[in-house]
Amino acid sequence: MTSSCVRKLAGGERHAYTIPTESRALVWPIRKEDTVTPDKKKGQKHIVLTSHPSTFGARPSPIVWGHSEPRQRGPVIATLTDMRQRNTIGTHGGAYAIYRALAVASGSLQRDHRPDFTYTAPVEPIGPHPSWGQPETIVSLDPFGAVVCEAFADFYARGYDIRPTIAVTRAHINMPELQDAVTKGRLSADGTILLPGGDIVVTKAAIEPVWYLPGVAQRFDVDESTLRHTLFEQTGGMFPELVTRPDLAVFLPPIGGLTVYIVGSVATITDPTRPLAVRVHDECNGSDVFSSDICTCRPYLVHGLEVCVQAAQEGGTGVIVYSRKEGRALGEVTKFLVYNARKRQAGGDRAESYFARTECVAGVQDMRFQELMPDVLHWLGITQIDRFVSMSDMKYKAVIDSGIQITTRIPLPEDRIPPEAYVEINAKKAAGYYTEGPVPDAVALATPLGRGLEE
Ligand SMILES: [Zn+2]
To answer: Is the pLDDT of residue 260 over 80?
Structure first.
């Protein structure tokens, strides 16, 4: 199946990445002595522990992280269908691996199912960019993750089970607030980027995290051993290879990934003569999807899209990066506990105690750690952002520290802030968020605002 899939891809599908024919491929065949005899006893589940390679004679295909030529970089292989092939800790699907386990356990999914990737190739070529060949620039995703079928065709032909960690497709999106922007004359339909009915035509990419552990450790200024041990501990010992397999440097963490929404031409993202607008947005389900009014997340997401459409209509591109880091990566349970604590505290809900109440519950104010966020911008080949649609000082610092220039920062216009969200926005402005207006003074920060829990 896989080899025919590759043939179909090579025989007329649109190519996102072409391997230069003159490039010298490094090939790591499965050695005959590595072969294990499958246990075919009916009903018996044969568990192969990968925590100690000597038990099954593994010699994983090397990954030369940061190599610009994919076959010399080597594929990331996290298959569970053939444990001998694995060269990676963890598995695909992030948190959804657990649902896959339920599907297998309940008998609805064959444990050795291999995907048929026919017709799944990216709709739009992205890269390769010079950043793909810099081991320290991208450490939390696989730049070749969208093009594994083409880049590693020879591996598929030899029976390897390699899965894409990036998928690129096209869509129309429509958010009702943008109709308001059209009505008020801030936006106008052009028939290709913004359609008369309010649809925005986008290219979108879903990206699963792929962590190069030495690079992630370096990004956080910790030693790799500390990072591995802490990941092992804090997942309840879920991935023993973190501590037993120092030879495996790549980890697929069981966390949410991110989605990139591109408005306008993908090709002009890297054109310095065209405007580029970028918003990096962290998930807030309550506001983003359900329009809860306690924060500014959805209004800022919509404003980001508005700025993206304008940049695209000027011949440039707009990019929204949507990261699954719900509630500052503390999760919704913590978030809702904090809402209650804020509303019930003596003196009422006010900006001066906004971060402190979070810290009381979570132990920290924020666990998003923007250090890894710029990787996706480098994957897109971005070196300069003309309009950065974010007030976050942490995101701004992370982006410029990663070597990307930012020309203009675009705050959320005052008239988009829900009255209930002033506790949040005032607290953030006082803590260093970018604003073109006044920073709230001590009196404003101490003033209780917003509804009570019974209202
Ligand atoms: Zn929010």
So the answer is: yes
Give the Å distance between the CA of 87 and the centre of ligand 1. Answer: 38
CB–CB of 86/30 below 8 Å?
no
Sheet holding 166-173, edge to edge: 166-173, 200-207, 258-264, 317-323, 276-282, 384-388, 405-409
Residue 430: how many CA atoms within 13 Å on its side-chain side?
Answer: 19
pLDDT band at 51 (very low <50, low <70, confident <90, very high): low
Taking the C-alpha atoms of residue 111 and residue 81, their distance in angstroms, rounded to an integer, is 7
Phi (first) and psi of residue 48, to 5 degrees = -105, 115
**304 in Cβ contact with 389 (< 8 Å):** yes
Whole-number pLDDT of residue 60: 87
Selection from 325, 402, 425 nearest residue 366 by Cα: 325
Q: What is the pLDDT of residues 365-403, one digit of tens each?
A: 999 999 999 999 999 999 999 999 999 999 999 999 999
Q: How far apart are the CA of 39 and the centre of ligand 1, in A?
A: 51
- Other beta carbons within 10 angstroms of residue 28's beta carbon come to 15
pLDDT at residue 450, as a whole number: 82
pTM: 0.88
Measure 65 CA to ligand 1 centroid, in angstroms.
36
Q: What totals of helices (H) and strands (E) does the chain contain, helices first? A: 18, 10
Please provide residue 318's backbone torsions phi and psi, each rounded to the nearest 5 degrees.
Answer: -120, 140
Residue 364 CA to ligand 1 center (angstroms) comes to 17
Nearest one of 144, 148, 152 to 128, comparing CA atoms: 144
Catalytic residues, which ones? Answer: 366, 368
